[in-house]
Specification:
By secondary structure, this protein is α+β, with helices and mostly antiparallel strands. It contains four helices and eight strands, in the order ααββββαββββα. It has an eight-stranded antiparallel β-sheet with strand order 1-2-3-4-8-7-6-5, sandwiched between helices. The longest helix is centred in the N-terminal third of the chain and has 27 residues. About 6% of the residues have low confidence.
Length: 187
């Protein structure tokens, strides 16, 4: 009889542990409203400055995510992937659709300073992949790409005429940054 009681107690404990684990996982899940708030906070945008916003739950490489998109009243577009389980920003994109007609032209070094400040990083914390000029729709931009030692990848386009960030992309774990780092180690 003792063996049977021990066996039943073990099954009961396993069941309680499973229920406890399942309830804590569901309690930690990010809601659509949380995902929107996380994206707005990351972008530094207040809800009253947003003219359109949508969030949809999806999966990305087997991970549950919220895809959040919004447009500000100044026609700035943002797209985010927020991890549904913990609320981590997996990727972010920004694009500005209007530009001032005049401004003070900037150098590539000034553009690099702008993007590093925006990312909250110093030059010694990153590896630059791209630093060049390019023309798009009749406007000249500096394209600057870099990654950190933990493979966070950043891509920026800076308007050469005004020095303003025209667009940026962020990837929290970039496979291309990992490949580049591996190639650099082989050299």
């Amino acid at each position: 009889m003792r063996k049977k009681d021990s066996y039943l107690l073990a099954i009961l404990m396993t069941g309680l542990l499973t229920i406890s684990t399942i309830s804590s996982v569901f309690a930690a899940q990010v809601t659509e409203g949380n995902a929107k708030s996380i994206a707005l906070e990351h972008a530094g945008v207040d809800m009253e400055n947003v003219s359109f916003m949508i969030a949809e739950q999806d999966t990305d490489d087997g991970t549950a995510v919220f895809e959040v998109e919004f447009v500000t009243k100044d026609y700035e577009e943002y797209e985010y992937k927020i991890q549904a389980e913990y609320g981590a920003v997996l990727s972010a994109e920004y694009e500005r659709n209007t530009f001032p007609v005049s401004g003070t032209e900037v150098t590539l070094d000034e553009a690099k300073d702008t993007v590093l400040t925006h990312a909250g990083l110093d030059a010694d914390q990153v590896t630059f992949l791209k630093q060049e000029s390019d023309i798009d729709d009749g406007r000249w931009f500096y394209e600057v790409e870099f990654y950190t030692e933990d493979y966070q990848k950043y891509e920026y386009a800076i308007d050469q005429k005004t020095g303003e960030i025209a667009s940026w992309d962020y990837d929290s774990d970039s496979s291309s940054a990992r490949r580049h780092a591996a190639l650099q180690k082989k050299k």
